[in-house]
Amino acid sequence: MSVDDTSNARRDFLRKSLTLIPVVTLATTGGASLALAETKERQRDEDKPGQSARADAYQPTFFTPEEWAFIHAAVARLIPADDRGPGAVEAGVPEYIDRQMNTPYAQGANWYMQGPFQPDAPSEMGYQLKLNPQQVFRLGIKAADDWSRQQHGKPFAELDTATQDAALRQFEAGKAEFDPLPAKTFFAALLQSTKEGFFCDPIHGGNKDMVGWKLVGFPGARADFMDWVERDVAYPFPPVSIRGERA
Amino acid sequence: MAKVMQKADVVIVGFGWTGAIMAKELTEAGLSVVALERGPMRDTYPDGSYPQVIDELTYSIRRKLFADTSKETVTIRHNVSQTALPYRQLGAFLPGDGVGGAGLHWSGVHLRVDPVELRLRSHYEERYGKNFIPDGMTIQDFGVTYEELEPYFDFAEKVFGTSGQAWTVKGELVGKGKGGNPFAPDRSDHFPLTPQKNTVSAQLFQKAAWDVGYHPYDLPSANTSGPYTNPYGCQMGPCNFCGYCSGYVCYMYSKSSPNLNILPALRQEPKFELRADAHVLKVNLTDDKKLATGVTYVDAQGNEIEQPADIVILGAFQFNNVRLMLLSGIGKPYDPKTGEGVVGKNFAYQNMATIKAYFDKDQHFTNPFIGAGGNGVAVDDFNADNFDHGPHGFVGGSPFWVNQAGTRPIAGVSNPPGTPNWGSQWKAAAADYYNHQLSMDAHGAHQSYRDNYLDLDPTYKDAYGMPLLRMTFDWKENDIKMTHFMVDKMKRIAEAMNPKAINVQVKAPGTHFNTVSYQTTHLNGGAIMGTDPKTSALNRYLQSWDVHNVFVPGASAFPQGLGYNPTGLVAALTYWSARAIREQYLKNPGPLVQA
Ligand SMILES: Cc1cc2nc3c(=O)[nH]c(=O)nc-3n(C[C@H](O)[C@H](O)[C@H](O)COP(=O)(O)OP(=O)(O)OC[C@H]3O[C@@H](n4cnc5c(N)ncnc54)[C@H](O)[C@@H]3O)c2cc1C
Ligand code: SF4
Fold it and tell me: B433 near B407, Cβ under 8 Å?
């Protein structure tokens, strides 16, 4: 199976191009709208100034200014901008999280939320709190800022980066005591959301300019690798997004 | 008062793999069939249209296509002394929902069964003696043999359009040096399609497995290696390894599903009707509980509706089948204290271990975003009873494989052990390793035990006010012993690849079942088939011993878990059961096996 001689590759190519025809016909709706989206996106890009301006211009609709400052500061430490490239803030992770907070998911709409609740159950029993993601973020950010004020006399966002990192490590390990929910639970939600916002399709507001995908070498929505399956080489094409943006 | 619909010959609960197969077989027999599916209508268009389906956040992370736990879930506890807690968010397993069931968004590893596993207890007793099977392990024979099922395995592969390489066909060796599995039982025919290409990860596994003396083979996949038309006239195009496979609807018409491989043919049948958004509450029985009269369901508007029928098929997936039997009073509930009763008995899972190998960035490009759900290379040297268990003191076997189904970065970024979970070091490792790693599984069989079982929860209810199903389940000593043995054998393959780092994920002794991290959706038992109504809920034709017009296809019928994935056997047993209904039951409705 690993032998890749030219005649095989050619047969594969012929076989694939022949049979692709009916599939493409069946899927016209998707294909056509993709092409349209692409043109629109290009025009929009041309009208806009620098990319980072786009990430900054977003106005949160869920988070308060204090919460927004926390989110910015925290995600900037979780995935920092550094010599390997842009970080969570440049990727638009705060925007992503704010937008997620306005989805049914953030209200716990597809979780089983009937009581009785046993919040102290061992971790292998899964999530057992009564709180939905909106509450986890709202209560968690307040608890983190309260903790920071108590320990260091100022909110998290105003700490220097080394102190912020140390604080995040305390939250992660559950060493910081939060009243409304375990610090660990809040930290896990924050980190998971940060990674989601860094690597999701840009359609969700994060991963701007596909910086997350470019960092790791993920081709995004290309989703057609027939000719690359067997090759032990770097995949050469840059990522594309659902809207048809090209990196 | 519930509205009463016109009577049908057959009502089917659930429209996943088993429901679709039964619907096709029974309409072919001239019967009128109504299928009731609790979830929404789903199909390749619009649910699998490109590019909207190429969205990791929506499908893998927010789990768009899976069961909605806000409506219905299960509760879980580790032993009888604990209070079970609800499975509030999906984690360890991902039940399906909507037309196609889990069959619409499964992966497509399409294996048969090792014949030994169908008569597991008899085989172990014959080869190792009765005392070899530990106390409290309740493994049983299925009551049907591989030879009896072979024609149905063959037909199911033709319906699914499975890609693979036979080892022998009618006794003739055909698969040596071509990707066949020397441990595979004989077949009546070839796979309908040749094996798919192998990813770089699978090639590395194949070579390393040869190097350490194992016998690698191409994993049969229900992802197409070429264009295909199945016996029902349904068409498939070739899989392009898009990498958005498990958890997604295939936009290429390449992954076998009830929606793609059966529904188009059923749509031509005037005697078939599919009702989506129809949540079945229970099977209705006559006063003496000997016969089913139909089912009651709730439609999208919340109306309660009665669907009368002469035959009731439960195709609602393993644990939903068991729950419906318990809610309806079909068969005697199992009691772990006395060991009596049958419904809920022998609940078993899959005993997985995983090894990840990380390569230097100049060593290999495994490109894990390339993949297909059923694709890979496997070895069966330690599956079933392909090696002498005598000196090792545990029951069960495990295939090993690289099954690169496609990973995407939100869930798929995995760094070598010791890397922090965030910050610049995490970021650098993600950049350095994402495209230079592979993952292999020991996909172990899991046995059944007296105190791993299913019943109704006393506290928690679903959105319709009905008790949730309760799982009482934990890992046992045999399971831990087996998985450690397997991971040691598999580690030799990983080491032979000469990676920079490896990460072995195996259950430590004393580990409890973790409901959070995904393992598999291969849940078994609870309504098991067998030869004796005292120890099984169903006879060998998947017919309820107690209510003869109720048939219950699905992995709920397995008396214990397999080394392989279940759907190959689930599909073959469903065809086998349908054939018995067509050829025996319709002529003479009554028990097909005398108790
Ligand atoms: C992510 C994933 C990957 C998988 N990969 C593989 C694989 O590679 N190989 C393999 O062999 N197996 C695999 N499986 C397992 C495979 O999907 C199942 O074995 C198979 O779908 C079982 O068929 P079924 O008909 O029993 O259940 P399903 O296909 O799940 O269908 C059951 C249907 O019943 C419906 N239902 C439930 N309750 C009710 C009710 N009360 N009223 C009405 N309808 C109801 C459900 O909504 C569902 O649609 C995978 C599963 C998952 C989730
Ligand atoms: S990997 Fe292949 S079978 Fe799976 S969804 Fe993509 S094209 Fe379909």
Answer: no
Number of domains in chain B: 1
Q: How far is the CA of B67 from the centre of ligand 1 (A)?
A: 10
Distance (Å) from the C-alpha of residue A106 to the closest C-alpha of chain B?
Answer: 11
Distance B290 CA to ligand 1 centre (A): 28
Residue A6 has pLDDT above 80, yes or no: no
**Beta carbons of A19 and B238 less than 8 Å apart:** yes
Q: Write the residue with the smallest CA distance to atom 3 of ligand 2.
A: B255
**Is the CB of residue A1 less than 8 Å away from at least one CB of chain B?**
yes
The Cα of B275 is separated from the nearest Cα of chain A by a number of Å equal to: 23
Q: Judge whether residue A46 has pLDDT over 60.
A: no
- Is residue B585 over pLDDT 90? yes
**Which secondary structure element, helix H or strand E, spans residue B472, and what is its range?**
strand B467-472
pLDDT for A57-109, tens place per residue? 899 999 999 999 999 999 999 999 999 999 999 999 999 999 999 999 999 99
The answer to whether the Cβ–Cβ distance between B430 and A203 falls below 8 Å is no
| Confidence (pTM) | 0.94
- DSSP H helical segments within chain A, as ranges? 6-26, 28-47, 51-57, 65-78, 93-100, 133-152, 161-173, 183-199, 211-216
pLDDT digit string, tens, across residues B11-60: 999 999 999 999 999 999 999 999 999 999 999 999 999 999 999 999 99
- In this structure, which ligand is nearest to the CA of B105? 1
Confidence of residue A55 (pLDDT cuts 50, 70, 90): low
Ligand 2 atom closest to the CA of B255, numbered from 1: 3
Going from the Cα of B124 to the center of ligand 1, the distance in angstroms, rounded, reads 30
How many degrees, rounded to 5, is the angle at CA A131 between CA A72 and CA B39?
Answer: 105
pLDDT recorded at residue B595: 84
A219 and B CB contact within 8 Å: yes
User: Are the Cβ atoms of A1 and B218 closer than 8 angstroms?
Assistant: yes
User: pLDDT tens across B53-62, in order?
Assistant: 999 999 999 9
The 10 Å Cβ neighbour count of residue B495 is: 15
CATH assignment at residue B397:
3.50.50.60
Contact B55 A242 (CB under 8 A): yes
B49 and chain A in contact, CB less than 8 A: yes
CA of B19, closest atom in ligand 1: 25
SS3 B407: coil
* pLDDT the model gives residue A26: 34
Average pLDDT over chain B, rounded to whole? Answer: 98
CA B514 → CA B447, B471, B517, B592, distances in Å?
17, 13, 7, 40
CB spacing of A82 vs B427 below 8 angstroms: yes
Active site residue B522: yes
Q: Among all residues of chain B, which has the CA nearest to that of A38?
A: B51
Q: Which domain holds residue B577?
A: 3-585
| B 424-453 residues inside an 8 A Cβ radius of A | 424, 426-428, 430-431, 434-435
pLDDT value of residue A51: 43
For A60, A63, A94, B495, the CA distances from A97, given in Å and listed in that order, are 9, 9, 5, 41
DSSP string, A52-99: HHHHHH---SSS-HHHHHHHHHHHHHHS--BTTB--TTTTTHHHHHHH
| In a domain? residue B594 | no
Residue B325 lies in a domain: yes
CB atoms within 10 A of CB B342: 25
**Share of residues in chain A with pLDDT > 70 (%):** 77
d(CA B204, CA B524): 32
- ipTM reported for the complex surpasses 0.90: yes
Mean pLDDT score of chain A: 84
**Band of residue A1 on the pLDDT scale cut at 50, 70, 90:** very low
A229 touching B (Cβ < 8 Å): yes
Measured CA to CA in angstroms, residue B137 lies from B339, B389, B476, B481 at distances of: 12, 16, 9, 14
